[in-house]
User: Which sequence fits this backbone?
């Protein structure tokens, strides 16, 4: 116990991140199920509007700040040193501090339930609804203070990852040779440094308004509600890529290994990640298309929002090209990775629809957006995480996950997720707005919502099977060995699980696939590239 | 409320333009998804590992193909951008505060009202003349709302302190469902309304009727009218107040509470005796009423034809 509480070793801190994210994932999932139950039929009164609004506020905040970011950070902190041939993070104590800041931010957020007024102004907390005049309880204060703590933790871990990648790489591993997961974690961390301060500034302004009677966002006193939106989305849209780019990196590790080919077009892949990061700062106003901001202003953001689809699309094509001509092994990890390609493509394409401003003028704030973000964040990030868990679990635990249970959970999750979310496209098109605690009995609204709720229940069952698989494999799984997938990156040269000191001897690196070179001395990569 | 507000059953030139853009986007998206899905499916079947086969040929990339799948999407995106901007020009109303709007629509927690230049105020059902484009100013008195009639117009945020303008137009007479489309607090779900598009003559007659007083109350309604003032209901429920919806011509409305309930004597009585049960979270204070007072008020409200 004490070993975990005082842990500064990157592997332990990484596991702590992943476990805390799992805990909050269960909380956020429960909140989602409460909402789906309330929406199962028109005019239900299972919960009050206030509770419903707390549920979607907490669900969004939890899934972004306490699940997506920590779990990706956890994988980053665990894997980056192993992948670059290092024995430790550059700043191990900062790593531990970052984790505990993040965790206690989450605890503070959830204490708001006990205070009797959980935040109910949405994860985006638009002013003036989030101001004291309209959100009278302490919920939004808890929310803002919790997010400030979390912001501190996130920035700390980002600095740690940047410094680690820059300074701890094995001899010979230039920045052009790092694995793509390391590269995307690196770029993501740089994005965090520029995006999160905007959020922190906005939170301080909101708290000043609420607690110190400042007037940043109060139009009656010369403030501007739109100021909040600009600040929030300057953070908020890069944030989407912050929780998607590391997932891209995972897919770029997994698909090549199970296709038995190197990733197609590494330089393009690395460059497109930078392009996405760069463009993501120029798209925030597409969250504000329904505000009268002026046609030319909107057109600029429309152009950037469309452009960002190009580097993203390149990645999808590169992954398919990686599979092309390969010898594909459909392990559970690969199945989730391939499903990711399809699910994420749906989310990406519906995103392009929103970049077309007139379409956004109809569909923003409807269930079409709910479908879009869930295809991106669940179909994208969570599917990649499920692939990553099946792929790296043997490294972290020393045991293999059960393939049969893996397949059952895969099909249940695919079926449940698509049933729950795909129909929401139609609901949005039919005019169902999001963030409503109930809806009138209009044609199709009832049946489609019921399908969505049933799908969500199937999804929960699939996740349950997945968790059973994790638990049982941890106890009874077959020993994995150091390199169960016959893979190519350095983490597979360490023991499973890695010893306190990852590498007794720091490996020398001459190509992007050091273990391929070791296994194929007759045709090493550094001779062919 | 009434029919489904399907945004792509457009009933105005503006929403037709939006539907056209959406159809193009949908076609492009479907085509791209088909390419991706067939690529994935083909690889999954054709390149599955065979028993005993060695490592496949190691291919690291191909500059030509990579340039191709950068340039082709760039061209698609460029085309889409042109279509987008063209449609925006067609749909967008001038954001020009010097011009007198035909209609001022204001969002409140949680109802909408529409004010006409003649002084008429409509709550619940907003009437417009069919076939004539209306310049509408959108305002809010409290938090951010969003005015959305999917079949008739783009949605527009109602930002407090920052009026904005849209074209509202219906190409044929009819009743079109609308709702608030920006989360605005406890009862965001019930901030619905209808737009009633009528032929010019019917519309003018309706507009005239709005300016007429309801007939003098008689019987129990006389006492109800007195209570309406004595119990301070009138402080919020008047055409000039922004604290509560105007109750003018209440008896002719089909719904109460922006769509949460039908306008029946029973539902109306619930509003009088327990507003929080009628619409949880709403801002109407609880005013203790005896049974006779309640019935008198009810009679008065029912008399507001």
Assistant:
């Amino acid at each position: 116990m004490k070993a975990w509480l005082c842990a500064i070793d990157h592997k332990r801190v990484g596991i702590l991140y992943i476990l805390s994210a799992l805990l909050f994932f269960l909380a956020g999932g429960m909140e989602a199920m409460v909402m789906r139950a309330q929406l199962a039929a028109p005019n239900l009164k299972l919960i009050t509007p206030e509770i419903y609004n707390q549920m979607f506020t907490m669900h969004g905040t939890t899934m972004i700040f306490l699940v997506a970011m920590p779990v990706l950070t956890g994988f980053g902190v665990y894997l980056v040193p192993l992948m670059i041939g290092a024995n430790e993070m550059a700043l191990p104590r900062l790593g531990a501090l970052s984790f505990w800041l993040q965790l206690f931010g989450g605890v503070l957020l959830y204490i708001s339930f006990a205070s009797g007024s959980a935040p109910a102004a949405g994860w985006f907390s638009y002013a003036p609804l989030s101001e004291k005049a309209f959100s009278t309880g302490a919920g939004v204060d808890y929310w803002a203070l919790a997010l400030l703590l979390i912001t501190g933790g996130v920035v700390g871990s980002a600095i740690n990852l940047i410094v680690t990648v820059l300074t701890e790489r094995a001899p010979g591993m230039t920045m052009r040779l790092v694995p793509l997961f390391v590269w995307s974690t690196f770029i993501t961390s740089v994005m965090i440094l520029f995006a999160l301060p905007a959020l922190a500034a906005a939170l301080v302004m909101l708290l000043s308004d609420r607690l110190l009677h400042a007037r940043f966002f109060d139009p009656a006193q010369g403030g501007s509600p739109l100021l909040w939106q600009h600040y929030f989305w300057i953070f908020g849209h890069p944030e989407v890529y912050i929780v998607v780019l590391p997932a891209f990196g995972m897919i770029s590790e997994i698909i090549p290994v199970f296709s038995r080919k190197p990733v197609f077009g590494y330089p393009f892949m690395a460059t497109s990640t930078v392009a996405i990061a760069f463009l993501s700062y120029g798209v925030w106003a597409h969250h504000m298309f329904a505000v009268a901001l002026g046609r030319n202003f909107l057109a600029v953001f429309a152009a950037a929002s469309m452009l960002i689809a190009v580097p993203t699309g390149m990645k999808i094509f590169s992954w398919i090209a990686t599979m092309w001509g390969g010898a594909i092994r459909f392990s559970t990890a690969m199945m989730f990775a391939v499903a990711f390609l399809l699910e994420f493509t749906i989310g990406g394409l519906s995103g392009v629809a929103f970049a077309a401003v007139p379409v956004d003028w109809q569909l923003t704030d409807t269930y079409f957006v709910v479908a879009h973000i869930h295809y991106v964040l669940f179909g994208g990030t969570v599917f990649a995480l499920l692939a990553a868990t099946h792929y790296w679990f043997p490294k972290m635990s020393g045991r293999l996950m059960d393939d049969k249970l893996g397949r059952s959970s895969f099909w249940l999750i695919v079926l449940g997720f698509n049933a729950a979310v795909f129909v929401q496209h139609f609901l949005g098109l039919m005019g169902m707005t999001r963030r409503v605690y109930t809806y009138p009995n209009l044609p199709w609204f009832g049946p489609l919502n019921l399908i969505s709720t049933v799908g969500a229940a199937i999804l929960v069952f699939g996740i349950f099977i997945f968790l059973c698989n994790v638990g049982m494999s941890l106890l009874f799984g077959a020993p994995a060995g150091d390199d169960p997938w016959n893979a190519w990156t350095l983490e597979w040269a360490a023991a499973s699980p890695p010893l306190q000191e990852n590498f007794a001897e720091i490996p020398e690196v001459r190509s992007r696939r050091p273990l391929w070179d070791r296994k194929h001395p007759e045709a090493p990569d550094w001779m062919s590239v | 409320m009434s029919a489904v507000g399907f945004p792509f059953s457009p009933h105005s030139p503006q929403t037709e333009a939006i539907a056209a853009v959406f159809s193009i986007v949908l076609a492009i998206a479907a085509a791209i998804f088909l390419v991706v899905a067939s690529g994935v499916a083909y690889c999954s079947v054709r390149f599955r590992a065979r028993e005993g086969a060695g490592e496949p040929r190691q291919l690291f990339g191909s500059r030509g193909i990579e340039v191709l799948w950068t340039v082709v999407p760039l061209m698609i995106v460029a085309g889409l951008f042109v279509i987008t901007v063209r449609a925006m020009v067609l749909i967008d109303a001038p954001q020009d505060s010097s011009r007198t709007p035909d209609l001022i629509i204001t969002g409140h927690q949680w109802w909408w009202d529409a004010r006409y230049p003649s002084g008429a105020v409509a709550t619940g059902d907003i009437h417009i003349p069919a076939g004539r484009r209306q310049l509408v100013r959108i305002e809010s008195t409290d938090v951010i709302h969003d005015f959305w009639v999917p079949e008739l117009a783009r949605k527009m945020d109602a930002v407090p302190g920052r009026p904005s303008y849209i074209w509202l137009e219906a190409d044929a007479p009819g009743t079109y469902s609308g709702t608030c489309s920006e989360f605005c607090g406890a009862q965001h779900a019930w901030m619905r309304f209808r737009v009633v598009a009528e032929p010019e003559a019917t519309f003018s007659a309706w507009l005239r009727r709005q300016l007429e007083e309801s007939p003098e109350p008689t019987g129990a309604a006389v006492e109800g009218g007195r209570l309406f003032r004595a119990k301070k209901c009138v402080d919020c429920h008047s055409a000039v107040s922004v604290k509560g919806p105007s109750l003018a011509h209440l008896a002719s409305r089909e719904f109460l509470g922006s769509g949460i309930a039908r306008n029946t004597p029973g539902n109306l009585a619930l509003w009088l005796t327990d507003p929080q049960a009628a619409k949880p979270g709403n801002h109407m204070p609880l005013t203790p009423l005896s049974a006779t007072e309640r019935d008198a008020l009810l009679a008065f409200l029912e008399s507001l034809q």
